[in-house]
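Problem: given the chain below (436 residues), write out its structure.
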Amino acid sequence: MPQTTAERLAEIKTELRLMEERRVMENRDFTEPESQRAIQLVEEREQLSMTRTTPLTPAELRHARIQESLRDYDPNHVPSDYPVGGFDPKWDKRYSLLRAVSRKLEKGYVDGYEGEVSAEIARRTKKTPSGFLMPMGLPMGGGERRDLDTTAGAGAVHTNFLGSRFIDALRNKTLLLSMGATLLTDLVGDVQIPKLTTTSSAYWVNEASPVTESAPAVGSVTMAPKTVGTFVDITRKLIMQSSYDCEMMTRNDLVRVLGLELDRVGINGSGSGAEPQGILQNSSIQTVAIGTNGGDPTWAKIVELESVVATANADVGSLGYLTSAYGRGKLKTVTKGDAGYPIHLWSENNTVNGYRAGATAQVPSNLTKGTGEDLTAVIFGDWSSMVFGTWGAVDINIDPYSLGTSGGVRIVALLDCQVKFRHVESFAKIVDMNRA
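Solution.
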């Protein structure tokens, strides 16, 4: 039986994928024969799809690959992990942050694949980088810094470093996206999210009497970008000699730090200066008090959190509890009722009163109230009402001067982002729970 067009297209897709995987595994560029074969396959695919009648030039093929790798880089794309979005994971190993840094140092600009990716992101987001743009979606995991050199990097030169065995730092868990928070990517300029603030009213009328006029009021939630940054110091030797494993180590440190900070401010951002305001610092979000000096949680207080949200008609969406690791431990030791009803507030299946529950050190456990110390927080709400916004990709700047006497280089990563709430009524919090 003759081969169908669909079958041939599937074969072409498989062959191209295997070629790319082989190139990635061997950590190299395509050979000339491989490049020619790839061009032939893409041309055949285009002809079979009846989308192109003229052959692809090598430059057009390269542009097509850029477009494919960035095909998910649009404002409506909601990734599954944090921070993510905007880059196809299968192209991870083709993009090299350290290679881009090396080009910037040597030539004063970034060329090659990394340069094309930066230019494409800049075009789509209408953002002019001060350095170059690195996609958020590469697998990478407030000002924080970590020094990486051939000593602190635990032998992170090409001949010795085993990336699969690299021991990363212990970090807080980022849970807000997994709890259901909304992520908006590739925003341009200030963004206004329309919001119905007052609904229409209904009236009972007598025969032939007019209905009283009422009109809904429409407001908005405005998101304007704020900037968070981090930097990492590396040696010039590390840039020139590092393996792909060290590349990943550098990326991980930069972007995980940014992701952790975004997660933290969503929970406990101060709202002062350039820092967004989080749930615990937002006075418009209702607080359920345990005692004058804090105290142990009770079943009644936990249920009151839910009642506060439900009374505001906000008990819909991605409902769940979030607390600290200490808070989880405390809730696991407190029962709902007397000794005859020994069911603990935190269930074995990581739920509280049937709602999913998460614990992370991002929730503070050193709060104070009156004479009470070392108190922690519990938050309940519809997490989809929390909105994270990012403007473009990570802006990478190269500082060769701060460590100039040692030949080191400082890589500075800046991200424009914001955290807002669709409805503050969607959350309620306890901020005075004993942690022990």
